[in-house]
């Protein structure tokens, strides 16, 4: 059974004669443990598809199953529970919380999962050590370089051991050496069993994955 499976997925914005198709008849399955890259020109629907898979966007039609459970049939609260438990996000613009330290940013996903304080402390300390950012733990995002902020973003996405990481242009704001560091992190996480779906414009980044899906004008290109 695929971890992610969508059938006849479509998204339209506007109404009447002003309707625009953003995604058209998307049929897609992602197996547990795969590393998938979604590619295509700007406006092809890549980020929209990723945000639907991540349950940030509920305005679509079709069927979506995650771990065998029909997401399209669930109430918003049930969707949010699956999102918090099973999905980690990495964004191009980092999305760290400006007024929290690195340590506190890493703690946030654990508080959503009601992890007790002592256990949170142990998990965060282990994560800081694993990502080599112990010395940064008391700094705020504005005190970090772009590469360091993205490193914290990846650490935050993985700290609660999600089943899948969804990454939207994760190296778009980084120089080449920082980008390679982030992609090597993804490769290691995937080797450890984490499913990864990334949106990227970079052929080099796409080659880190095991499969490439190309979108064109809202369709999966064949």
Describe the structure.
The chain is α/β, with parallel strands linked by helices. The protein is 35% helix and 26% strand. The protein has 7 helices and 10 strands. The strands form 2 sheets. A 6-stranded mixed beta sheet has the order 6-7-8-3-9-10, with helices on both faces. Strands 2-1-4-5 form a 4-stranded antiparallel beta sheet, covered by helices on one side. Helix 5 (146-158) packs parallel to helix 6 (176-191). The longest helix has 16 residues, at 176-191.
Keywords:
single chain, 222 residues, alpha/beta, Rossmann fold, 6-stranded mixed sheet, 4-stranded antiparallel sheet, 10 strands
Instruction: Note the total helix count.
Output: 7
Annotated CATH topology: Rossmann fold
Strand order of the largest sheet: 6-7-8-3-9-10
Provide the gyration radius in Å. Answer: 18 Å
Could you tell me the strand content as a percent range? 25-35%
- Whole-number mean pLDDT: 93
Low-confidence stretches: none
Q: Would you spell out the secondary-structure blueprint of this structure?
A:
Elements: E1 4-13, E2 20-30, E3 35-39, H1 46-53, E4 61-66, E5 69-70, H2 76-86, E6 87-91, H3 102-112, H4 117-130, H5 146-158, E7 164-168, H6 176-191, E8 195-199, H7 203-206, E9 211-216, E10 219-220
Parallel strand pairs: 3-8, 3-9, 6-7, 7-8
Antiparallel strand pairs: 1-2, 1-4, 4-5, 9-10
Helix pairs in contact: 3-4, 3-5, 5-6
